[in-house]
């Protein structure tokens, strides 16, 4: 059993002092990968690479419901979800972290609810990210003197392609800061399971090149990988610090999300 879960890339395995693997099918199918459970600051933590260990699952094919269910079955109450992301604003630079506070869904065709009937529920999603976890993450960034932004809206696109310049201009014009392919439906499924969810965006690029900035080139997969690899250790240290500083008991309302949602 583990109360904290992490979705991320295979490089996060080194977070653990000791580890064991848990595999199996959930009632929503097989997750992306077996869950690895280890300890951080004497706390049991579950880890799963959402794209599979060898990164064989594209964002629109990630079995989000099975992944969240696998964590729920293990007793996870809080999810830390680091992700590579593009910047939509000039002041949000590659290498920066963004502690997301809002989300815009621009995906399609993804199974994004556990309630397809006959049980019907309408979960509140006004605040998609756990405020308690965000507060801890911000405090940890300050303590570690990490270049970060205490809030930011993540627009989630379907992928696997990157945006056109026209799309990127549209998203930037709305004032949104971050663009990503996996925060949705991960976040809302966690809410339906009454689990806290923290989105940490590691900025790897400027989305499709900033308008009027010819030196900023459109994003490429190679550049994303390069920046993410360069900051991987920093991400792991931040996550470890967050885990260490999370209070034992939750003080937020995420655990009561479905209290008045069912009809």
What does this structure look like?
The chain is of the alpha/beta class and 263 residues long. It has a single domain (4-256), classed as 3-Layer(aba) Sandwich (Rossmann fold). The chain contains 5 helices and 11 strands; from the N terminus they run ββββαβββαββαβαβα. The protein has helices at 64-73, 131-144, 165-173, 183-192, 221-245; strands spanning 4-8, 19-22, 35-40, 43-49, 78-87, 97-99, 102-106, 148-149, 153-157, 178-180, 196-206. Strands 1, 2, 3, 4, 5, 6, 7, 8, 9, 10 and 11 form an 11-stranded mixed sheet that branches. Helix 2 (131-144) packs across helix 5 (221-245). The model has no long low-confidence stretch (mean pLDDT 92).
What's the SSE blueprint?
Blueprint (H helix, E strand, L loop, with lengths): L3 E5 L10 E4 L12 E6 L2 E7 L14 H10 L4 E10 L9 E3 L2 E5 L24 H14 L3 E2 L3 E5 L7 H9 L4 E3 L2 H10 L3 E11 L14 H25 L18
Parallel strand pairs: 1-4, 1-5, 5-11, 6-8, 7-9, 9-10
Antiparallel strand pairs: 2-3, 3-4, 5-10, 6-11
Helix pairs in contact: 2-5
């Amino acid at each position: 059993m583990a109360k904290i879960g992490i979705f991320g890339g295979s490089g996060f395995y080194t977070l653990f002092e000791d580890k064991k693997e848990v595999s199996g099918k959930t009632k929503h199918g097989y997750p992306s990968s077996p869950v690895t459970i280890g300890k951080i600051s004497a706390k049991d933590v579950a880890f799963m690479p959402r794209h599979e260990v060898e990164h064989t699952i594209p964002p629109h094919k990630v079995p989000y419901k099975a992944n969240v269910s696998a964590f729920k079955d293990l007793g996870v109450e809080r999810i830390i979800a680091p992700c590579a992301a593009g910047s939509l604003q000039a002041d949000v630079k590659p290498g920066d972290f963004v502690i997301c506070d809002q989300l815009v869904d621009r995906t399609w065709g993804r199974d994004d609810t556990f309630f397809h009937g006959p049980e019907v529920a309408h979960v509140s999603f006004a605040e998609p990210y756990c405020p308690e976890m965000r507060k801890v993450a911000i405090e940890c960034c300050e303590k570690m003197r990490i270049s970060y932004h205490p809030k930011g809206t993540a627009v989630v696109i379907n992928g696997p392609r990157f945006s056109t310049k026209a799309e990127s201009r549209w998203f930037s014009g709305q004032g949104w800061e971050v663009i990503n392919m996996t925060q949705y439906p991960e976040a809302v499924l966690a809410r339906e399971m009454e689990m806290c969810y923290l989105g940490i965006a590691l900025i790897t690029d400027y989305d499709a090149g900033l308008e009027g900035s010819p030196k900023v080139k459109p994003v490429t997969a190679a550049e994303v990988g390069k920046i993410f690899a360069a900051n991987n250790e920093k991400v792991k240290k931040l996550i470890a610090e967050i885990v260490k500083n999370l209070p034992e008991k939750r003080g937020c309302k995420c655990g009561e999300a479905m209290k008045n949602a069912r009809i």
